[in-house]
Amino acid sequence: MKHSIYFLLFLIAPFVSIAQEKNIIKQQATIVAKATKAQDYATVIKYTHPSLIKMVGGNDAMMKLLTTTMKTVAEQGITIDSVSLGQPGDIFKAGNELHCLLPQDVIMRFGADKKIVAKGYLIAISKDDGINWSFLNLTEELNNQTITTLLPNFNQNLKLPTDSKMEVLDN
Questions:
Q1: At CB < 8 A and 24+ separation, what contacts does 46-52 make?
Q2: Where would one find the signal peptide in this protein (predicted)?
Q3: Given pLDDT bands bounded at 50, 70 and 90, which one contains residue 63?
Q4: pTM: predicted TM-score of the whole model, two decimal places
Q5: DSSP code per residue over the chain
Q6: Does the pLDDT value for residue 9 go beyond 50?
Q7: Which domains are present in the chain?
Q8: Are strands 165-170 and 91-94 parallel, antiparallel or unpaired?
Q9: What torsion do the CA atoms of 131, 122, 140, 79 make, to the nearest 10 degrees?
Q10: What Å distances lie between residue 117 and 39, 79, 170, CA to CA?
Q11: Res. 127: pLDDT tops 50
């Protein structure tokens, strides 16, 4: 009986670990989503993958880019209404990192009667076996050919989706 319980635990443990990692991904991505909506760019930067921050020119340059971009968007009358996250996908080993896709929908208001719905994905990256995650927003520019610039060990088994889209809806 005792051996049966150990054997069962041995079989179940990897699935419990994966479920915990996916919960952590979603929790940490939710922090980023709330920070984005609240214009807390220091928190957004804290959870942005370091390779993107380095590419932009460091934390100060990233802060300036986020602030300027969001100011320009606000001047055009666009505000972030909400960010909703889907369930994290499969987790892939990539060198000494873990990678995972996370669907997200960003709903923005444009004027009094329009909504913009941007359906896309985040790439979640962990360098410490799933304890902490950083994120990259998957854009048309960040595709299978350019992802390896930011993530040199990117696992090509993680297929980057091409179904990101933006819709304008009447209220």
A1: 47/133, 47/134, 47/135, 48/134, 48/135, 48/136, 49/123, 49/125, 49/134, 49/135, 49/136, 49/150, 49/151, 50/134, 51/149, 51/150, 51/151, 52/136, 52/150
A2: 1-19
A3: very high
A4: 0.82
A5: -HHHHHHHHHHHHHHHHHHHHHHHHHHHHHHHHHHHHTT-HHHHHHTB-HHHHHHHTSHHHHHHHHHHHHHHHHHTTEEEEEEEE-----EEEETTEEEEEEEEEEEEEETTTEEEEEEEEEEEEESSTTSS-EEEEE-SSSSTTTHHHH-TT--TTSPPP---EEEEEE-
A6: no
A7: 2-170 (3.10.450.100)
A8: unpaired
A9: -130
A10: 19, 12, 11
A11: yes
Does the pLDDT at position 163 exceed 80? no
What contacts 50, CB < 8 A, 6 or more positions away? 134
pLDDT of residue 5: 44
